[in-house]
Amino acid sequence: MALKLKFTVLAIGLLLGACKSAPISFHTLTPTQPMTGRAGSEITIEGISVPPQVDRPQIVIRQGNSGLAILETEWWGASLSDELRSAMVDQLSNAGGPRKTSVRIDVQRFDSIPGQYGLIDVKWRLRQANTGDDALLACRSLLQTPSGPTIDDLVIAQQNNVKRLAALISQASAGSRGCPPAS
Questions:
Q1: What mean pLDDT do residues 146-175 have?
Q2: Within 10 A of 78 (CB to CB), how many other CB atoms are there?
Q3: Global pTM?
Q4: Residue 177's pLDDT band (boundaries 50, 70, 90)?
Q5: Average pLDDT taken over every residue of the chain
Q6: Backbone φ, ψ for residue 140 (5° rounding)
Q7: From CA 131, how far away is CA 93, in angstroms rounded?
Q8: By the 8 A CB rule, do 84 and 162 touch?
Q9: CA spacing 20 to 30 A to 44: which of 89, 150, 158, 169?
Q10: What is the pairing mode between strands 67-76 and 136-146?
Q11: Whole-angstrom Cα distance, residue 80 to residue 68?
Q12: Residues 142, 166: Cα–Cα separation, whole Å
């Protein structure tokens, strides 16, 4: 009887050990380095939209020409749209020009390919407060940053894209004529 109990306990232990899953890693689009102090007013974010295929807590990467993979152990700290909003608020605080400005951000593509690049294709609309649509500036920016093979490398590439987008919006808000070129 004792031998049967030992085998049962061993079998249960093996089954429970087989059920162990990999730990979940969480990532953010907000970089660890705080933004340097800048003069100016804040640029308010009217809204952010992200394609539904990638607007989830799990990181989504492209596979091949037409595939997507949802990484069950690599997550954003929130849904992608909330992560992007948080990162843009961080980047755009005190980045505006002398007048109150607001921006609407519509992400067309958010591609992540480990070992190749992170890409954000975004339409954005900048508006001065209390001017209606007369002072409306509509732009489109395609930002791509090379990435290393790891998910951490890919997240850093996308953080860089967000920084560059915020810099373009800040530049346009400061009074430059027309849409600034994505460099």
A1: 93
A2: 15
A3: 0.82
A4: confident
A5: 85
A6: -135, 135
A7: 21
A8: yes
A9: 158
A10: unpaired
A11: 15
A12: 13
